[in-house]
Amino acid sequence: MTHPELGEGAIEWMGTYYKTILSKAASGGAMSIVDSVSPVDSGPPLHVHEDADETFVMLTGECDFILNGEITRAGPGETVFIPRGAPHTFRVVGDRPSRHLVILTPGGFEGFFAEMAEGQFAIPAQIEQVIEAGARYHMAFTGPPLAAIQAEMEGASA
User: Fold this and answer.
1) Sheet holding 88-93, edge to edge
2) Given CB 3.0 to 4.6 Å as the disulfide criterion, which of 8, 11, 14, 97 pairs with 117?
3) Residue 91: left if φ>0, alpha if ψ -120 to 50, beta else—which one?
4) Cα 125 versus chain centre, distance
5) Whole-angstrom distance, CA of residue 112 vs CA of residue 132
6) What are the pLDDT digits (tens) for 99-133?
7) Which H or E run contains 67?
8) Which uninterrupted H or E stretch holds 152?
9) Is this structure's pTM higher than 0.85?
């Protein structure tokens, strides 16, 4: 598949496009880098990478991130580091998609995106398949997407 920003070799899952630009194999297992374009209001459920640190390098757009219960916003030129074992998620905010690099150390998680794109598993309808695939890549889901967390926080403060 060709994507206007990512070029040839992009894959799509739930409206987000991914292109692996450095695979686990190419780095000798040290890391993987995935270039991603995510639509407004998108983002995964709260989750933990049990064996990998994750770094987001923001290229365009803005995302809210939750890490250790604290919400922060990151935009172009900013970086968000998430240590392994830390529950986290993000949500694309504003009026334009977010393009960001997703760097995992060690590498390997790019396989999860490939599996999801191949199976086109939907959340929440096929969450069991998504959970099973996540486990194969040492990821566990621990809560809802950030939009639901933010709505709950707003309701509690009202």
Assistant:
1) 70-74, 62-67, 88-93, 45-49, 139-145
2) 11
3) beta
4) 19
5) 10
6) 999 999 999 999 999 999 999 999 889 999 999 99
7) strand 62-67
8) helix 146-157
9) yes
